Amino acid sequence: MLPVLVVTPDRQSFNSLEPVISLFMEGVRKLPLKAQHPKASITIAEPVGEWRSSGDSSLNYVTSSGAYAGSSTLVHGASYTIASDGSYNHSSRA
Length: 94
Fold this sequence. Notes:
The protein is α+β, with helices and mostly antiparallel strands. The chain has one domain (about 10-94). It is about 20% helix and about 35% strand. The protein contains 1 helix and 3 strands. The chain has one helix at about 10-25, and strands at about 50-60, 70-80, 90-94. Strands 1-2-3 form a 3-stranded antiparallel beta sheet, with no helix packed on it. The longest helix has 17 residues, at about 10-25. The protein starts with 10 loop residues before the first helix and ends with a strand. About 0% of the residues are buried.
């Protein structure tokens, strides 16, 4: 995981930039330092295991005078468990 802080003037701006931010983050890699050729195909056994994804968003609201007016937080997550026969279980929460 790589923490990233994105500052925008409002939620609408952030929402419009989210696809670009996601593409950028997907392009960041820690290791290996040397790029490897992408696979053209995978076997049924390669994705076997548990796969998880999650995210969150938090906003603080202020009045026009700068006083704290509240906050909101959204958290979501999904989990896939993939068996060697290709079957899977999925769960998600928000």
